[in-house]
């Protein structure tokens, strides 16, 4: 990196420290807002207010009710995605602090969603705030041997004339990862060149994830009064060998050299709510974890080949999804796995950003869980990369928290990243 570039890095790190109070107050405000999936309206409004306060060129909500802010006017769009919704709290007595009361102890802020994914929202919003201030001042860091995805651009061109950075406080991710992002791309027409996901990575990079899908397997019987079971045919009894066969499939599911073997498990069983009758039907839900490349047709074909001879049927259900705006976004309960190639310029830019800031190339891994990348990379084919300050061990846990020093460093990363990607 040139001397000018080193000066920009110094300015970014200085601004990240100066904005600490604002960033942490914003995160605390988000934690105070209960924003279960489908109930994100108040958190969206708070995020929109912060996006206006940091000086976004445009602030808006899309059809699905995502909070969006744009820095710059260029045609090449970099999208930062972090979700505002959280899982519901099962038992507040298990929490060391009330879930909706942010508490700072040592260098960590505790509270519901701190690690998944409101810490990520704070990081991308304030990364954009720093980017806006530095870019509009005319600084242009340069790097020899840098990366670019399409075409050489004049070095003197302002970054924000060439690029737009869009910050997305996403909705619906916990229950239907990628559905709200799909709406932004396919319904509202904003298709980014690349996507960065501010999920939990502990300041390392994630270049892919396993996918998941839901499969419903059903057996049919014949109803009869429980006092005369010989007149009926129990769908539950017919389901017993089907469940055994579904479990046995785990020995032969697809294997990936990076993600390992897929797996599936029966997670739910339902039938008629008539305790004094032989059940006429029985249905189980199968949670299937996918390796990249598996398709709905292939998953169903494999399961049907096993359960069909046993008299059962298999389908991937339609997942009902309603945004907080009231918009219905129902879609198949299938979330693709994906993997960013090791040589992709997006990954190179992520490594270069961390190296420029901290002098060390970050570790690169993959997620075991599913994210909005199931749509951006898995379905839409948009290059996608993960980077966030949060730690996976605190996700969906009663000691939910984010380290505030790591939050500051993630802010620096998101401020510098567009420069490195552009080069």
What topology does this entry show?
Elements: H1 3-18, H2 20-32, H3 41-53, E1 58-61, E2 67-71, E3 76-83, E4 103-105, E5 108-110, H4 114-136, H5 159-162, E6 163-170, H6 179-187, E7 194-197, E8 205-209, E9 211-220, E10 224-225, H7 235-248, E11 255-256, E12 260-261, E13 263-270, E14 277-278, E15 281-290, H8 296-307, E16 312-315, E17 318-319, E18 331-332, E19 334-335, E20 338-339, H9 345-358, E21 364-367, H10 373-376, E22 384-386, E23 401-403, H11 404-422
Helix pairs in contact: 1-4, 1-11, 2-4, 4-11, 9-11
Descriptive report:
The protein has about 425 residues and is of the alpha+beta class. It has 2 domains: about 290 residues, Zn peptidases (Aminopeptidase, 3-Layer(aba) Sandwich); about 110 residues, Alpha-Beta Plaits, CATH 3.30.70. Helices cover about 35% and strands about 25% of the residues. It is built from 11 helices and 23 strands. About 50% of the residues are buried.
Task: Give a brief rundown of this model.
With 423 residues, this protein is α+β, with helices and mostly antiparallel strands.
**What is the CATH first-level class name of the largest domain?**
Alpha Beta
Stated plainly, the CATH topology of the largest domain is called Aminopeptidase
**Helix content percent band:** 25-40%
Kindly report the average pLDDT value: 94
Order of strands in the sheet with most strands: 1-2-6-3-7-22
Tell me the distance between the termini.
Answer: 11 Å
- Give the DSSP E fraction (strand runs of 2 or more residues): 15-25%
Low-confidence stretches: 141-157
Number of individual domains: 2
Please provide the count of β strands: 23
The total count of helices amounts to 11
Oligomer: single chain
CATH superfamily of the largest domain: Zn peptidases
Gyration radius (Cα, Å) is 24 Å
Task: Please state the second-level CATH architecture of the largest domain.
Answer: 3-Layer(aba) Sandwich
Question: Which structural class do you get from the secondary structure elements?
Answer: alpha+beta
Net shape: elongated
Biggest sheet architecture: 6 strands, mixed
